[in-house]
Amino acid sequence: MIRKKLALLALLGLFVVPAAQAQIKHIEMRVEGMT
Amino acid sequence: MKQHLGRQSGVQNVEVSLIDGKVEITPKEDGQIDPAQLLAATYDSGVTVAEMDLTAQGKIVKDSSGNLVLQIEPNRTFVLEPNELSKGLESLAGSQAVVTIRGQLYKKPAGKKKPDASARLKLVLLEVQKRQ
Known about the structure:
The complex is a heterodimer. Chain A is α+β, with helices and mostly antiparallel strands. In chain A, about 55% of the residues lie in helices and about 30% in strands. Chain A has one helix at about 1-20; one strand at about 25-30. In chain B, the strands form 2 sheets. A 5-stranded mixed beta barrel of chain B has the order 3-4-5-7-6. A two-stranded antiparallel ribbon of chain B has the order 1-2. The N and C termini of chain B lie far apart (about 35 Å). The mean pLDDT of chain B is about 90. The interface of A and B includes residues 21, 31 and 34 of A. β1 of chain A pairs antiparallel with β3 of chain B.
């Protein structure tokens, strides 16, 4: 039973972890006219 | 400008270099940052954006028109401008693979001062940093 739960948890982790990692990490702009 | 950009949603930190006109923005992890909003906010603060690059992590999918798209969240996607690098990502479309890419989201068109807010920003891939 515990093995079954662990396997299910590992399977869920495969889908949840990549979704959690998806994000904008950094934005860089070059601007003109700044004083 | 630093304060104005810092007040936009999803922005954690803004660093401005007066010497080379570089503005670096660190997003919060809440995923609320909107590059198009930042572009507009920068113009509102009285400067012209020459170009905007971003580094992002997400999945590669195809939209209804068959374009390759970087999907960061279900409702946040960037269409990838076709180039040599984007061709290399075609095999990942629809898979669970997460890629980290760096790309140019905006470049000031010659002669235009203000970006067209209605135009959808397309991401020109500059570098594929990581595939997982």
